[in-house]
Amino acid sequence: SEERVMDIYDAENPDGVVLYTGGQIPNNLATKLEKHNVSFIGTEAVNIDSAESRHIFSGILDDLNIDQPAWKEFVELEELEEFTERVGYPLLVRPSYVLSGAAMAVAWSKDELENFLGTASKISTEAPVVVSKFEVGAMEIEIDAVASEGEVVIYAISEHVENAGVHSGDATICLPPQRTYLETVRRIKEVAKRLAKRLDITGPFNMQFLAKNNEIKVIELNLRASRSFPFVSKVTGHNFIEIATQAGVAKKEGRKIKFPKFNTLDLDYVAVKAPQFSFSRLRGADPVLSVEMSSTGEVACFGNNLEEAFLTSMISTGFKIPKKDIFISIGRTIDKADFLDYAKEFVKMGFALKGTEGTAAFFEAEGVEITSVKSENLEEEIQNSDLLINIPTGYAHEKKTKGYALRRAAINGNVSLITNIQIAKLMVNALKKYPKTSDLEMTSIDDFVS
After folding, report:
1. What SS3 string covers 270-337?
2. Helix 240-253 crosses helix 229-236 at what angle (to 10 degrees)?
3. Segments of 164-269 assigned E as strands
4. Which domains does the chain have, with CATH numbers?
5. 143-171 tens-digit pLDDT
6. Cis ω for the linkage preceding 435 (within 30 of 0)
7. Which run of H or E residues covers position 388?
8. How far apart are alpha carbons 360 and 358 in whole angstroms?
């Protein structure tokens, strides 16, 4: 809290305070501490506030001609009618200064929007709530970087396996990016450099982007070390936080540092950061990914390729690789069609497929060998399977659906669960390349990072 920080500050009388290693909460205190004439090591409080305030930051993006999802600040639901008619659903509801996605949600209809607005206003009363257009089917890409007095000195660009709509803390992330166009990478670097200069950043920062059809849109900029800083430091072999500290102290002392050029993109290996969940200990919780963070930890693994790193990381989280029976339940027809070829690959690999009546009917009509399971037998058949792939129709919300019952059956029966179609497809590719876990080569990090 502000009071406890000031107690320590007054007692110790330090030369400066570092805000950027404490997550979101210290950033929320920046302007309050500045009023007490606290001196900072790193980016100034006014620039932290500019990045955290959706209204101010959006204006900066407009000034720099940097694209962003359409959004609107609101107080009353009526103010949104013109906006929703113009951009349509789905919409992302979010307050400023969010902590782990608290009070964030995707609304697919007016009823859901009204419901989420009530939740958001209860959680965040000091900061305004904003609604932005949710980009369906877009990739999410992050850049972690360090700047020194407005100049970027090192960066790492990571790619989410899941499409946009999954909280970055719950996302499976790979470095270097595997599907991102080179032109997209170039544009992301350019935007990061321009914003670092505009906000006179000194220290660490993280930016999140939407990418679709080689066009990028800025989601947000955090002027602090993100949860992926340890990951990118391990993967690239460069200690990002040490570099950030050097930059901050040098600025404080009025010194200039000439940083070397760092190679963080052209790597001969791939690393994957996978989330760790504790749904088995949370009775009744819906084990599905959404814009609100659910994970309680994470692991990172290296590999010679994406599939090896991904499979190793999944095993490290306690995910049990399927050996025989796989149960599939996919809500939307478009997702069933998207997964069709991958279901066929499962059959070719010798897996026995089971599915809900709707999913089984679709795949059977397309020539996939799959057993249809009646509703009264679903829980038993899921718990007799090695893996449940359940792709919900939408994103998580309060209403308990039939899909929720399937997911809880898997968790309660200690059955491996996948609820994202991009993860499901990557799992198929990984099992195709490494049909036996003994095919995975376990090596030291030192064998990858020199």
Report:
1. EEEEEEECCHHHCCCCCCCCCCCCCCCEEEEEEECCHHHHHHHHHHHCCCCCCCCEEEEEECCHHHHH
2. 110
3. 173-175, 203-212, 215-222
4. 2-52 (3.40.50.20), 70-133 (3.30.1490.20), 320-439 (3.40.50.1380)
5. 999 999 999 999 999 999 999 888 788 89
6. no
7. strand 387-391
8. 6
